[in-house]
Request: fold
Amino acid sequence: MKRKVSEFSYGFVLTHELVNACGYLSTDTLATDTLATDRLATDAPQGSRKRRKKDGGDVADDAPRGYPLFIQFKASEYMKRRNAGESKLVGLPYFRFALHRKSQSNQHQLLIELEKKGCAVFYATPKIHEAVNLNSAFFDRLVVASSLFVNPAGIGELPDNRAHRVVFSGRSDDVYLCSKPRRLDGVIHGSDFDETLRRMVAGREAQSLDDAFFNRLADDMASLVSPNRRIFDELSRGKVEMSASTFANYLAKTLFDCELLIVPA
Reply:
C-alpha cells in the first residue's frame, strides 16, 4: 500500500517529541548554549571564568553531560491484503520497512559499527499509516508511544544480498526479520523507549558535551565511512561555518541518514 506518512514528516514529529516531552537535547540547542556560554565566559571578570577541582585543576562550570543517540527514520508500509507475504507471522493488517541490500548500501553495517563506538543507535518507524493519525499523535504527544524502535545490532549483519524487511504489527510485541523469518531481539515498543534507553546508557560513562566530544564523534563517523579520511577532509571545510555539535549532526545526516540527539545524564 502506498505510504501516507513520509520519513520527513515522521522524523520531524518524533524528534520534536523526544526533545520537548522526553528532554533529549538537540545539537541546535547545544550550539546555542555553547555560544551563550562562550559569551558569558568572555564577559566574566578575569579569574571567575572557571571553578577549581579539589586537586587544583580547572574545569568548565556547569558543563552538560550526556550520551549520543543516533536515530534513522523508516517509513512503514501498511499491508492489509490477504496475499501479503508476511501475514502468516503477525496477521493482518501489519507494517514493514525495508533494509538496504548490501549491494545498494553498507548503511546497516555502518550503524552496527557506530554502536560499537559507544553510541546508542536505532531505526525508528511509525505504527501509524494515515497522516491524520500522525497529526493527532503529534498534538497529543503520542508519537513515541506510536513508534517502534529497532536496534541494528539486534538485527545483526545481513547474511546475503537479498531483500530484507522488518515486519511488525500494532497488536503484537513480536517483530520479525524477513525474508527468512527470525524473531528479533533489541526492539523497543513505543512508550517503553525513554525508560529503556536511559537504563541502557546508565552503565556507560556520560560525556561532557563540549567541542572536543563532538569533534571526536565527527572523527569516528568519518573514519567508519572513509578510513582514509578523504570524505572527512572534504566535508571539514564547513567546520569553520558552524559549531562542533552542528557539524557532528551534519555528518550524522550526510553519512548515516540519522538524526543525532543527546540523552542527558
Observations:
- Confidence is low (pLDDT under 50) at residues 35-60.
- DSSP finds ten helices and 14 strands in the chain.
- Residues 191 and 204 are 23 Å apart (CA to CA).
- The longest helix spans residues 27-43.
